[in-house]
Fold N-acetyltransferase.
Amino acid sequence: MTHSVDPIMLSIPERLETDRLLIRAPLWGDGAVINEAILESLEELRPWMPFARTAPTQEESEKHIRLARLEFLKHSELHMNIFNKLTGEFIGCSGLHRIDWDIRSFEIGYWIRTSCSGKGYITEAVNGITDFAIRELEANRIEIRCNAKNVKSAAVAERAGFKLEGIFRNNRRAESGELGDTKVYAKVRGIEYE
Ligand SMILES: CC(C)(COP(=O)(O)OP(=O)(O)OC[C@H]1O[C@@H](n2cnc3c(N)ncnc32)[C@H](O)[C@@H]1OP(=O)(O)O)[C@@H](O)C(=O)NCCC(=O)NCCS
């Protein structure tokens, strides 16, 4: 028996709020602030994020964000941009990826602009997006995957209460070309939440 629905028919809110953050679907025009944040953060992003291999132009960032909006509207990937609720400053990107609508399984990804790191914003965003996935999307499984060497990313998963399920060995190539391991964290319905 399949539980799948046609995802295009789902009603999915385009925004959520946490104590300090506004987290919303990408909008036409977000490219400029995202480009500024990527350029500021290239050194920290480069070891982990393929898009930071070379500095993007503003036009490339705008094109990327427009495609991300279209994917959100199709409900194939729920990209989300994170802003400071009070100041409106762009903080970073997150979202729900690798969606399986039959299982209702989602993976949370994230990166932060360097000037906003170390303040708990990403942990707050992950907690907010996890609640959103449970409440609005009836998630049965929410994953966080990271390079086993990415200590800061694993710390986010652990701070947000995700359980380490295992380590997949030699299943990724880091940006350096080096083979590496993947840590798989998850929260599942019936165990980490009802
Ligand atoms: C992974 C990444 C998003 C983590 O960012 P971060 O700023 O360390 O994470 P948070 O925003 O949750 O902040 C946590 C830090 O703020 C501190 N902090 C301050 N106030 C806090 C609060 N209210 N709540 C939680 N933590 C708080 C924590 O102690 C922690 O500091 P520490 O790293 O010195 O221990 C960032 O390193 C990054 O973008 N890396 C490059 C891209 C990447 O690797 N993405 C993940 C791919 S899987």
The longest strand covers residues 90-100. The beta strands are 15-17, 21-24, 78-84, 90-100, 105-112, 141-147, 163-173, 179-188. The chain has a mean pLDDT of 96. The longest helix spans residues 58-74.
